[in-house]
Amino acid sequence: MLVAMAGLPGAGKSAVAAALGRELRAPVLAVDAAEAAMWRSGIDATQRDGVGLAAYAVVHTAAAAALDAGHTVVVDAVNAVAPARDAWRGLAREHGVALRWIEVVCSDPMLHRARLEERGSRYAELAEPTWSQVQARVVEPWDDDRLVLDSVRPLAELLPEALRHVTGRHAGR
Q1: 130 found inside a domain
Q2: In whole angstroms, what is the distance from residue 118 CA to residue 12 CA?
Q3: Could you report the average pLDDT of every consecutive run of 10 residues in the chain (173 residues)?
Q4: What is the secondary structure of the chain as a DSSP string?
Q5: Which of 7, 58, 82, 140 could share a disulfide with 13, CB 3.0–4.6 Å?
Q6: How many of the other CB atoms lie within 10 Å of CB of 16?
């Protein structure tokens, strides 16, 4: 199975992805981690515009290899636009696996902003977006069935819901 996370930076999707990955014993492949590794490897700053897209491609390739090996994969990415979502749909189709979408939102703008500003830089090489950059992000409309989780609720409540969505079972089983 391919589980594709979606949501704005700071909304809480990485926390849900990590917990879900632990529960499913599945690798969590994060686009931000791939992008940070690319910067760490010495990608030239003049190539900044293409690095984010390239990071999606790196995670796509790693996910394909894991799916080939028979593993469930959790992808941690913003997935705000149709081309990103199309790539995961195509990957699931190519590998004959189910695709489960989970979108994480934070309905409290003050909490969302505080989380974004308090989390600091998770990767030294990757600048975290500002609150104004997050607010300016365009999230294209969805056509896919997806579970929408509001991260104002505690992770302990969100995880069982996410697990039911992807497997039909409860956490801890």
Answers
A1: yes
A2: 13
A3: 96 96 96 85 68 87 97 96 95 97 97 88 73 92 95 97 87 50
A4: -EEEEE--TTSSHHHHHHHHHHHHT--EEEHHHHHHHHHHTT--GGGHHHHHHHHHHHHHHHHHHHHHTT--EEEE----SHHHHHHHHHHHHHHT--EEEEEEE-S-HHHHHHHHHHS--SSTTSPPPPHHHHHH---PPP-S--EEEETTS-HHHHHHHHHHHHHSS-TT-
A5: 7
A6: 25
Cα separation, 91 vs 134, whole angstroms: 27
Distance CA 144, CA 128 (A): 28
CA gap 53, 41 in Å, rounded: 16
Position 173 in a domain: no
Enter the pTM of the model: 0.90
Alpha-carbon distance 73 to 26, whole Å?
5
Tell me, yes or no, whether 172 lies in a domain.
no
Contact 2/88 with Cβ under 8 angstroms?
Answer: yes
The rounded distance, in Å, linking the Cα atoms of 84 and 6 is: 10
Report how far apart, in Å, the C-alpha atoms of 99 and of each of 29, 63, 89, 107 are: 15, 12, 7, 25
Structure tokens at 57: 């491609």
- For residue 125, the enclosing domain spans 2-167
CATH of the domain at 29: 3.40.50.300
